[in-house]
Amino acid sequence: MSFGASHALDASVLVLNKFYMAVHVISVRRAFCLLFKDLAEVITLDDGRYASFDFQSWREVSEARARFKHPDDEFIRTVHFEIQVPRVVRLLAYDRLPRQKVKFNRRNIFARDGNRCQYCGKRFATSELSLDHVLPRSRGGLANWENIVCACLKCNVRKGGRTPWEANMRLIKEPIQPRTSPSLCLKLSHRRYQSWKTFLDNAYWSVELK
Known about the structure:
The chain is α+β, with helices and mostly antiparallel strands. It is built from seven helices and nine strands; from the N terminus they run ββαββαβββαββαααα. Strands 2-1-7-3-4 form a five-stranded mixed β-sheet. Strands 5-6 form a two-stranded antiparallel ribbon. A two-stranded antiparallel ribbon has the order 8-9. Keywords: Endonuclease, Hydrolase, Nuclease.
C-alpha cells in the first residue's frame, strides 16, 4: 500500500495487547501495516462503548466519517480511497503485559521536567539543556531519577561541582521517578490523543470490579 505524503503519517498510535492493556506506541505507517496484515484491529470508544474494526471495515467507516470531519481527525489519501488515521489499535495475538518501569533516558527526563531548567525555572529547547547531577558524581552522586535534573547551560556552569545548597541554588521541585512515561503524558496534552487516556489511566486497571 502506498500513501501520499502527509503530516498525518507523523502521528502516533497507541497499541494494546489482546487484553486491551496499553503496551507500546508506534507510527501510523506501522499501524496500517499491522491492520493490512490482519495482525491488529482499530479500537474506538464512543459514548462509553467499544467498537473494533479490521482494515476493510475501518476503510468503510472512514469513507462515512470523511463527510463530517472533526478538526482533530486526520485522514490519509491513497490512490483509490481516503482512510482515517486510527488512534488506538489492538494486537490480536499479543498477550504480553505492559512494562511497568519507566525507561530512564534523556528523553523521559526532559519530558518529566517539561524542558524547564530546575534551577532558574525557564523553558529551553532540548539542544539548550543539559543534565545535572544534584549530588555531584565526585561526591558519589548516582545517575538515577532522584539525582538527575534538567539544567540550562548557564545554571549548570554556575553550580559546577557543588550541591545546590553550596551553590546557593534551589531546586524548583524534588526529582522523582515518574509512575508513567512522561513522553506519553506530553502526548495526552494534545487533543488528538485524548482517546488514549482510558487505556493509560492507572485507575482504569486497578479499580476493583463488582
